[in-house]
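Figure 2 data, in text form.
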Amino acid sequence: MSAEPGRAELGEPAYAHAAEFGDELYEDEGASAAVPVLAVVGRPNVGKSTLVNRILGRREAVVEDKPGVTRDRVAYDATWNGRRFTVVDTGGWQQDAQGMAARIAAQAELAVEAADAVLFVVDATVGATDTDEAVVRVLRRAGRPVVLAANKVDGERAEADATTLWSLGLGQPYPVSALHGRGSGDLLDAVLDALPEAPAEQLMVAAGPRRVALLGKPNVGKSSLLNRLAGTDRAMVDEKAGTTVDPVDEMVELGGRTWRFVDTAGIRRRVHEASGQEYYASLRTAAALEKAEVAVVLIDASEPLSEQDVRIVSMVVEAGRALVIAWNKWDLVDSERRHYLEREIERDLVQVRWAPRVNISARTGRAVDKLVPAIDEALHGWATRVPTGRLNTFLGQLVAAHPHPIRGGKQPRIQFATQASTRPPRFVVFATGFLEAGYRRFLERRLREEFGFRGTPIEVSVRVKEKRKR
């Protein structure tokens, strides 16, 4: 699989009808239930993820010039000739695999079982291998319609290589270059012929599940938590850190409602400091956070709080998303560790004392049911709006009791304030002079005490009104 040149752009959302903040538009869930599913399978390094990106028309699946980058089955919404369908990218299938490779193959087989049709990708420059023939046997047992893609046919000379794949007994091989796009139109036409009829693209409706992103550093238990909530092995779990690369989302029934949880790659360092697979995974994690409404940041409670934990929390605050902190692996925490943990929280997370805290264990299932009340609380604070009259009455009393300090012989006065927006709440204060950062923090703290805003960052900006000249 060839690496895509240059650094990937965030591009369009991974879901064609993702929530658009401000209008609160969501995909029509009733329509999405009828959308057919296409599973993309093949042995490692044949170009599956590159072909998925070609089908989507944007860079979504992580691509790097080495096998085994994709591990989980990752779903994306796609359209072709006005028809909608879901593309499921899978990890490379290998026969007689052991360890993580065996679990990757199992995920690919699950994707085939859940699909309406299968796109089987073979490297035309190599030809049919024993592993390819083993995949064919799996596909025949599944009984799904199969479209055979002969990838890496970059010119007319290579088309002869594609014809040798008739030997697999799956019908016509479609020569295609996932990297350059050659032959992709004919391939997609064949895919639509294999898929059942689906409704045409529909208008957006104000409905849909809330989007929750699971964030944290590698090996903190994000995939284990998703599997626990979903009640199935939806995401790959391994003792080795960095197992998840692409964001993996799953519809989860929790607390009597449906949620869309998104498991993300562990954030090891800043995006600009990462490279290769880790860089692309960091980009996808940042994109998943931007599309989420609330972020659940998992922190290993059994280990000392790290600088990376604090940085991830800060990233959520800077993105303006609602925040819940889940202290995972609580079953490994003893009384001595709890004492030191409280001190670490007071020292390093003092700026986010407003975030709900939940002590859980993804491994045992301890207290995971408490996530829903915490998420609801954070979402409520995230969408809270204070009436302008009530806001100014409160500020008038506050400023009268605690005026801004006099600096340089002048004392700035707050004239009035308004809440400019929600999700997250943003306030604009009109004053006769600049308000110091310390006083703005004081205003923020008192706003939280008065109006709640539990689980959400809030922003207080100052607009200085100049005196009119006579």
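Caption note: The chain is about 30% helix and 20% strand.
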